[in-house]
Amino acid sequence: MKGEKIGDKLYKASQELGRNYRLIMREAMRRVPLRYNEDNVPVNIRWVREEAVKSYREYKEGRFVPFYTDELNLMKKD
Question: CA separation (Å) from 46 to 5, 7, 40, 51?
């Protein structure tokens, strides 16, 4: 859709994913940590949202593996 805003993409992703939306946002924030200005307002929220859209795309393609899932899998092997 031409001119679709990142917030719209994120909203669609959240509707499709349900609970997994939190997982994707957590991964996006791990990749791009939020930075705040002196008024305690996030200054790079757009980058985090863009990263969340990338994470969602990876999820849809089956390539999405969250960081902490790797750690859990390693612990199960021990």
Answer: 11, 9, 16, 9
The phi, psi pair for 43, rounded to 5°, reads -100, -15
Average pLDDT value for residue range 16-25? 66
Long-range pairs for 17-20 at CB < 8 Å and ≥24 separation? 17/56, 17/59, 20/59
State how far the Cα of 48 lies from the Cα of 31, in Å rounded to an integer.
8
CA distance 35 to 71: 26
pTM, 2 dp: 0.42
Mean pLDDT of 1-13: 63
Tokens of 57: 């795309």
Q: How far is CA 78 from CA 65, 69, 72, in A?
A: 20, 15, 10
Contact 24, 52 (CB under 8 A): yes
